[in-house]
Specification:
There is one protein chain. With 129 residues, the protein is an alpha+beta fold. The protein has a single domain, classed as Holliday junction resolvase RusA (60s Ribosomal Protein L30, Chain: A, 2-Layer Sandwich). A four-stranded mixed beta sheet has the order 1-6-4-5. The chain has a two-stranded antiparallel sheet with strand order 2-3. A hairpin with a 2-residue loop joins strand 2 and strand 3. Helix 2 packs across helix 4. The longest helix is centred in the N-terminal third of the chain and has 19 residues. It is globular. The two termini are 22 Å apart.
Length: 129
């Protein structure tokens, strides 16, 4: 983590089929989705609390347009869509640090395979305008 960006490795989010549940005819975030967001928030605050750049970084994140880059590492190349985890990962990241995700003006998604260590690597930085 620098004064320019947050970079963090997190678990792969639940699949889109496991992110939401239907309750009384309404789509709501499932318990798996809520647990994922909570875990991401905890990991973010842990990483931020250890960063000497926390104050400067948070100031810039709250005042500038943002770019989000997510590299998904799945166990199989065809098992999941690259965009299926975008929304929950973006929401979890932004909610975890108290930002509205409408501040993100640029998004980059990548899909790779790592059979033994599935994960996502996220970078949130200032967008180049």
């Amino acid at each position: 983590m620098t004064a320019e960006s947050i970079e963090i490795t997190l678990p792969v989010p639940p699949s889109i089929n496991h992110q939401y549940a239907t309750v009384q005819g309404r789509r709501v975030l499932s318990s798996a989705g809520r647990m994922y967001k909570q875990h991401v928030g905890q990991q973010l605050w842990l990483a931020l609390s250890q960063s000497p750049h926390k104050r400067a970084l948070m100031h810039r994140l709250r005042s500038e347009p943002l770019a989000l880059s997510i590299r998904f590492y799945f166990t199989s190349p065809l098992r999941r869509d690259v965009d299926g985890g975008l929304k929950i990962a973006q929401d979890a990241l932004c909610e975890g640090i108290g930002l509205n995700d409408n501040r993100i003006v640029e998004t980059h998604l990548y899909k790779d395979v790592d059979r033994t260590n599935p994960r996502i690597q996220i970078a949130l930085s200032m967008a180049i305008q």
